[in-house]
Predict the 3D structure of the following.
Amino acid sequence: MANKVIYPIFDKMMSREDKEALLHQRGIMIWMTGLSGSGKSTVACGVERELHRRGILCRILDGDNIRTGINSNLSFSAEDRRENIRRIAEIGKLFVETGIVTIACFVSPTNELRQMARDIIGDKDFREVYIATPLDECERRDVKGLYARARRGEVKDFTGISAPFEAPTHPDLSLDTSQMTLKEEVEAVVKLITCE
């Protein structure tokens, strides 16, 4: 029934090529995955600043920011985590198709969730970056106090403690922020984006 009242206008809108020509850049999704506290957001902000310096338009989609807005109605149940990633991928696809370099920073703990995001966005536009910082280092940082609360049993199904994290099997880039400087991490991601 709903399909009889939906009339997409994709064929009337300006094309992705038009948008990319206007911006003089190519849209791409950099999907950063890793444990809480691994450094996803820190690396993303560093990349954003470097791209801005180079005149490249970039947008960061960060887990905490998204959960205070468009996904504020979602819990952390398995079903809602899946919906969280699905919505982010759909939003990210809009940015990418507008020619914007988009960086998504989400724990996205399973290969299945990340594959869903890749399928929505499209393989040619999706680059997976694994922020492979070890659990003990993430716990040491624990800026939000979440690991300590999870260890005390106050946070249920916390990834890395009471819920599993599946490391990506074939990421496009893997970074351990406990072994690299932020400058090195940023350079590696920018190189992935610009194909330098």
Summary: The chain is about 40% helix and 15% strand. The mean pLDDT is 92. The beta strands are 28-33, 58-62, 101-105, 126-131, 173-175. The first strand starts at residue 28 and ends at 33.
